[in-house]
Design goal:
Radius of gyration of chain A: 18 Å
Number of helices of chain A: 6
Shape of chain A: globular
Structural class of chain A: alpha+beta
Largest interface: A-B, 15 and 18 residues
CATH topology of one domain in chain B: Peroxisomal Thiolase, Chain A, domain 1
Order of helices and strands of chain B: EEHEHEHEHHHHHEEEHEHEHHHHEE
CATH superfamily of one domain in chain B: Thiolase/Chalcone synthase
Oligomer: heterodimer
Strand content of chain A: 25-35%
CATH topology of chain A: Thiol Ester Dehydrase, Chain A
Mean pLDDT of chain A: 91
Shape of chain B: globular
């Protein structure tokens, strides 16, 4: 499908777009912007990348992890959801799933062109699901692809909700225990630049129904990927389902088991009884 | 040795001055980068290596398993065991000998010896009294006991303690110790500056001819040793003010090694393992000897390798004339110059119990691709920089070529090893 591409001068600042994306829409029908937003030749900030690696537990390397490129595309997510033509707002939108593919190792010194569009609006029992589809290119070569699925609570889309794809959860024995400090949301905000106060402010968290701030799902995803570094081939795929938020401070577990093509990971409650994030990794397809 | 131990490769990241391009990197990050570069070049991804031995001189307490953690972050198989060793500036050579000895005994068929140091990310600790108070508070069973413990904290306790490159027994820095030796052995400023300039020029020439193409992988945008000054000269070095030995001192920032960041690794194996992995053996590890001097009894702190060299050559039935290349670690230019003088000093050698002076060797055999003054000196990495460098140089010269490595270390210690091209 030919899609109009809006070329931006640079990564949009998230403050204003984020504020717009927080304003609830009164439109009865769900509308999504059909165009893609794109930025070209973005230079990665080595200092911010080093700090990102530190906060997420990655070894500081010349090649960057898939989750870092996701972070770089995030301002484009906000720009699309903050667009006037979008009736889906970040308010009440929950990041429920994420799939990323690294096509090859990407150097921190490589300028990236990033493009994101919205698609696949579909009904869900509690609202509507939609995908933010992104890709990163180096000199026209696609090196990274990402699909972030959001649930827009309360939004109505005609049709029958698809069946939940989650396998039933069996309690596991965690192989790791992480202690997440109360200020982790603040530390991750500095490197991800995600200004959502739900991750840093108790008041904001309460307003959205959480007793305490919740850590960003993409931090948890990144931390689990960091625990596995060295095991993933350079071209790999990582899927994550964000099942249950982690309230800060927290102690969580990590369970790892082999699956058909790689490793299955789960960030769980301390005892492994309930999942927070369920992940799968394997070679890129 | 029962099994022949060969050096089949090496890898390091370019070295850099502290606070430079690796200011944000930890020992773990740099050691992993050095290992992964070696793994990539030698085709060892997913391979179980017999053992990895590494170490750092400036080490954070939570890095107690530094090398094993770096292995787990690397592309090596997670079943690769590792251990941490530390012998100050001799660490990278001591890890080499630790693994070489195991391979020689048949306990291993492959190993990676490594060293890393970050002077940028050095651990800062709390003062001793504060540490004791914190430990007491953590053992307290009641809030009252905890409050009582914390009540003993005084403002002076709160100053953080940066690590010092000083001898615990003397409080003198390495440079201050070497300044005593420099004066005692009458080492001139000119000779030191000449040696320093030559080190830069030789290292620059080695980079130019591509010698390091299969010994170094870039890291964080740095592709060559960042300490290296190809355009330095004796004249430029002569303009520098003394850094050690007072206003009349001859040791400057130009003829002393800077505080550095970097990591290096050496791949060691049996000849059979090397053949199975289609790797070319460069040189075999012949023998090594470690030594120490009477410290702080007044001996020259950085001349401990002299006694080790004499005993090692004697044990192998060799003389200085049988050695084709000498790698004498340039902790300071004057260390190398004093070492060479000491080798020729009959009284000094006799005082060490040696049969006679070791003798002299021509300048063109010394540090032919430069050494620590030009490359930089991340303490524990230096030995693991020199071993593959010398092994490759000997391999270029042809079978039977011999090289000797001499490294001085804190505490009045030294380690010396002989390699021979195969």
């Amino acid at each position: 499908m030919d899609r109009a591409v809006e070329l931006l001068d640079g990564l949009p600042p998230m403050g204003a777009a984020f504020a717009r994306a927080l304003v609830p829409s009164r439109a009865a029908e769900v509308h999504l912007p059909a165009h893609a937003v794109r930025v070209e030749g973005i230079r990665q900030d080595p200092d911010r990348y080093a700090e990102y690696s530190r906060v997420c537990g990655y070894t500081l390397r010349d090649t960057v992890p898939a989750t870092w490129i996701h972070v770089l595309t995030f301002p484009l997510h906000v720009a699309l959801l903050g667009d006037r033509r979008s009736t889906v707002r970040l308010v009440g939108a929950v990041h429920t799933a994420n799939v990323m593919t690294m096509r090859r190792a990407v150097g921190v010194d490589e300028p990236l062109s990033l493009q994101v569009h919205l698609e696949n609006l579909r009904p869900h029992a509690r609202g509507a699901l939609l995908d933010l589809v992104g890709r990163a290119e180096v000199d026209g070569e696609t090196v990274w692809e990402g699909v972030s699925t959001y649930l827009a609570s309360g939004a109505h889309v005609p049709g029958e909700p698809g069946a939940s794809s989650h396998e039933p959860w069996e309690p596991v024995a965690p192989v790791a225990r992480w202690r997440l400090a109360a200020d982790l949301g603040r530390r991750y905000r500095r490197v991800s630049q995600d200004p959502n106060p739900i991750h840093t402010s108790r008041v904001a968290a309460r307003a959205f129904g959480f007793a305490r701030p919740i850590i960003h799902g993409m931090w948890t995803h990144a931390r689990a990927m960091a625990a596995l570094e060295g095991r993933l081939p350079e071209a790999h795929r990582a899927e994550a389902a964000f099942v249950r938020p982690v309230l800060l401070p927290a102690t969580v577990g990590l369970a790892v088991s082999p699956n058909d093509e790689g490793l299955r990971l789960a960030v769980t409650t301390k005892d492994g009884a309930k999942p927070h994030v369920i992940m799968g990794t394997g070679p890129a397809r | 040795m029962v099994h022949t131990v060969v050096v089949v490769g090496g890898n390091r990241i370019p070295f850099a001055k502290a606070g430079g391009p690796y200011a944000r990197a930890s020992n773990h990050d740099m050691l992993t980068a050095a290992l992964d570069g070696l793994v990539a070049r030698a085709g060892l991804a997913g391979e179980r290596i017999g053992e990895v031995a590494g170490g750092a001189v400036l080490k954070h307490p939570n890095d107690f398993n530094l090398t094993r953690e770096a292995v787990l972050s690397s592309a090596l198989a997670p079943e690769t065991p590792a251990c941490d060793l530390q012998q100050a500036c001799a660490t990278g050579l001591e890890t080499t000998m630790y693994l070489a000895n195991k391979i020689a005994l048949g306990q291993l068929s492959s190993g990676i010896a490594a060293g890393v140091d970050s002077a940028s990310d050095a651990p800062i600790t709390v003062s001793d009294p504060l540490r004791r108070i914190l430990l007491k508070a953590s053992r307290a069973r009641t809030p009252q006991q905890r409050i009582a413990a914390f009540a003993k904290v005084r403002p002076a306790h709160l100053a953080p303690q940066a690590p010092r490159v000083a001898e615990p027994r003397t409080g003198l820095s390495m440079g201050e110790h070497q300044a005593v030796t420099t004066a005692r052995w009458d080492i001139s400023r000119e000779a030191q500056d000449e040696l320093a300039a030559a080190s830069h020029h030789k290292l620059a020439a080695a980079w130019e001819r591509g010698f390091f193409d299969d010994l170094v992988t870039p890291y964080l945008g740095t592709t060559r040793d960042a300490v290296l000054r190809p355009d330095t000269s004796v004249e430029k070095l002569a303009a520098l003010k003394p850094a050690f030995g007072g206003p009349e001192g001859t040791m400057t920032a130009g003829n002393s090694t800077p505080l550095s960041d970097g990591a290096a690794a050496v791949l060691l194996a049996t000849e059979e393992w090397a053949a199975e992995h289609h790797l070319t053996p460069w040189a075999r590890i012949v023998d090594a000897e470690v030594a120490a001097v009477d410290h702080p009894g007044g001996a020259d702190l950085l001349l401990a390798p002299v006694g080790a060299t004499g005993r090692l050559l004697a044990r192998q039935g060799l003389t200085v004339d049988d050695i084709d290349l000498f790698e004498i670690h340039e902790a300071f230019a004057s260390t190398v110059l004093a070492t060479r003088k000491a080798w020729q000093d009959a009284d000094y050698c006799a005082s060490l119990g040696l049969d006679g002076p070791l003798g002299a060797f021509p300048d063109h055999k010394l540090n032919v691709t430069g050494s620590s003054l030009a490359a930089g000196h991340p303490f524990a990495a230096t030995g693991a920089r020199i071993v593959p460098t010398l092994a490759k140089l000997l391999h270029e010269r042809g079978p039977g070529s011999r090289g000797l490595i001499s490294i001085c270390a804190a505490g009045g210690q030294g380690l010396v090893a002989i390699l021979e091209a195969v």
